Amino acid sequence: MKQNYTFVVLKKELTDIFRDRKTVFSSLILPVVLYIVMFSLMGNGVSDMMGGGDKNTVVALSGEAARADVRTFLETHVFEDTPGISLTVSKDPLAAMDSEAVTLVLSMDAEAAANLLDGAPAKVDIVYHDQKNASTAAVEYLQSVLNRYNDESMRAALWSMGIDPNALFPLSMEITAYTAATGNGAESGGGHMILAMLLPMLMSVFLVVGGMATAVDLFAGEKERHTLEPLLCTRAGRGSILTGKYLAVTIFSLISTAVMALGLYGGMLVNPNLFSFGMDTGGGLSLDAAALALSILLLFLMSATYAGLHVALSTYARNIKEASTYGSFLMIVGMLPTFATMYSQAGDIKMWMMACPVLNVVGALKMLLGGILRYDMLLVAIGVSVVFLLLVLGLTRWMFRKERFLFRV
């Protein structure tokens, strides 16, 4: 009876992989640190871009707005009890804004200044720097402050004339979000929508990249080092060699993907604005346990499928350079479904998408993050992924038994 050497090959390959300190550091340790640092910096940039106008907005007064009486009126009437806004006078306000000494410039002509002090309609000119995040965010905040002042002044004037300001708005609106998962009244924050847009794309990249380098080294690398022929002459059959190497690639791919996801999660913990872009996340993200388990199973199946594809391409390739080229092409092709559905929301996912490899994983993640529980769609996605995995493994096994693929020259 022929002995099965699959686990012998698997143990040998895993030992070689984890014995290489450079591989362990670059593939398992460095990504955690880099992702935490990178996503934290991205989150800080998002925070600066999307908000902060109410924290430290310095408005330089120019023209007639710089007069002492006009400035006093602005401070005591328009910007009274307004956090984050301070007024100053600058000789060269545009240069001061360019050097970030001031955030915005507010100017008025003589007629506008006189009207403002008399309580008549007045026009102010606001200049912001369109290449600085702080100035771009501040101009929106300043607009909201001025609109609030206009609204309060209008209401005060109407009440003084005995007119109820609400009579000017005969039709009021109340807008409520609806989701199929929780019914009418459910609120879905904008941050969750952004998370559902970006996270599936990142996970698809992690899955396709995770085992690529390992597969290239274990197959095309063996060819280039001329160690594949001696390995095939051992007592281990080709089936055991292929299965052991494939399992090693799959295991390392799963570990690498988990490490990258851990680094992503660490970055989110350090800076929660990473995927929210300063938007409301609806009071936290709640995930259904069963749907989460099925989605993780889909990720596992897709990781195993990508490992099989990398093994097949690396088996076909003549050397490491050629195998890396094929792997890069596979990465681009695998990302196409992700970009095609990048702006789709959870409710846009259709049943036919669950029958498409890669696309079904992206759709499942979007539904999970969107709170839509369609177990029938998840089960279809799992079934299709299993069939696709078996086809890939069948192709890989067939190629590994053909001399014309193993020893291409």
Structure explained in plain terms:
This protein is of the alpha/beta class and 409 residues long. 64% of the residues lie in helices and 6% in strands. It is built from 15 helices and six strands. The protein has helices at 6-19, 21-50, 68-78, 93-98, 110-118, 133-160, 190-210, 212-225, 228-232, 238-270, 289-316, 320-340, 359-370, 375-400, 403-406; strands at 57-63, 85-89, 104-108, 125-128, 178-179, 183-184. The strands form two sheets. The chain has a four-stranded mixed beta sheet. It has a two-stranded antiparallel ribbon with strand order 5-6. Strand 1, helix 3 (68-78) and strand 2 (85-89) form a beta-alpha-beta unit. The chain is elongated, with a radius of gyration of 31 Å.
Write the layout of secondary structure elements.
Blueprint: H1 6-19, H2 21-50, E1 57-63, H3 68-78, E2 85-89, H4 93-98, E3 104-108, H5 110-118, E4 125-128, H6 133-160, E5 178-179, E6 183-184, H7 190-210, H8 212-225, H9 228-232, H10 238-270, H11 289-316, H12 320-340, H13 359-370, H14 375-400, H15 403-406
Parallel strand pairs: 1-2, 1-3
Antiparallel strand pairs: 3-4, 5-6
